[in-house]
Design a protein that fits this description.
Blueprint (H helix, E strand, L loop, with lengths): L1 H19 L12 E6 L2 E2 L3 E3 L6 E2 L1 H12 L3 E6 L5 H6 L5 E2 L7 H4 L2 E3 L4 E10 L15 E5 L3 H7 L5 E5 L2 H9 L5 E5 H8 L8 E13 L2 E3 L3 H17 L1 H10 L5
Helix pairs in contact: 2-8, 2-9
Bound molecules: glutamine.
Glutamine binds next to loops.
Length: 257
């Protein structure tokens, strides 16, 4: 009886020490995950790399850097633009990083970080369109916009315009190409990227003085405002270290301002 008791102790001890030798630390430091929501058809801010299928772009690089600075592992979810704020409110994501303009209306529902990019709206029309030169010329025209965006809000204010809403900006450009609409109202840097890198210049052009000084911010839940302040701190640190500048010039080919 005694003997078998002691042999049990020894065997158990041996087994335990063997398990301990397995290489992995006994307790793994808990991984902190930042669940980021984006609408990933908005180049150069967020889009899917054709080869790697990874989400890439200015916002994606920046939010990964911000997350890293804060000690998080960033996980990205691709959602519809009009589904981003509801997803945040439902607690399905922690942050929105999606070229989202800071507006008073949105700020009633979510907490924004400080602005991280300055934008505005412009118009894209067919290459041969000589009628539409600026925003007042949109009156009574057929317009395409992305659903839930500031471009959609601007178009809704145009007198007599027939506005059609699409899920992605890519779809609005396609409709313009097919002659279904006269103009697209959308964010300036995305229009510029579409015309140059996206090859839209073959059939389209950008017109109009940029309207609305719009600034992009990352958004978090109102219940989690502390996180917005933490993100501001991280952004500040990235600006100081030159990391923000590096990401900015990677995507816009120039320095800030
Ligand atoms: N900046 C615009 C907005 O916030 C468009 C954003 C987008 O389509 N991703 O409404």
């Amino acid at each position: 009886m005694r003997k078998s008791f002691w042999s049990l102790v020894i065997v158990t001890g041996l087994l335990l020490s063997l398990a301990g030798c397995g290489g992995a630390p006994a307790k793994k430091a808990e991984e902190k995950i930042l669940r980021v929501g984006t609408e990933a058809t908005f180049p150069p801010f967020e889009f899917q790399d054709e080869k790697s299928k990874e989400y890439t772009g200015f916002d994606m690089d920046l939010i990964r850097a911000v997350g890293k600075q804060m000690g998080y592992n960033v996980k990205i979810d691709n959602l519809g633009f009009d589904g981003l704020i509801p997803a945040l409110e439902a607690g399905n994501i922690d942050v929105i990083a999606s070229g989202m303009t800071i507006t008073e209306e949105r700020a009633k529902k979510v907490a924004f970080t400080k602005p991280y990019y300055d934008s505005g709206l412009t118009i894209v029309v067919g290459k041969d369109n000589n009628q539409i030169k600026d925003f007042p010329d949109l009156e009574g025209k057929r317009l395409a916009v992305q659903i839930g965006t500031t471009g959609a809000q601007e178009a809704a204010r145009v007198k007599g315009a027939k506005v059609r809403e699409f899920n992605s900006v890519g779809d609005t450009f396609l409709e313009l190409k097919n002659g279904g609409v006269d103009a697209v109202v959308n964010d300036r840097p995305v229009n510029a990227y579409f015309l140059t890198t996206g090859g839209g210049i073959a059939y389209a052009k950008e017109v109009g003085k940029p309207r609305n000084a719009e600034s992009y911010g990352f958004a978090v839940s109102k219940k989690n405002e502390k996180m917005a302040a933490e993100m501001d701190k991280a952004l500040e640190a990235l600006k100081k270290s030159g990391e923000y500048e590096k990401i900015y010039s990677k995507w816009f080919g120039k320095t800030v301002n």
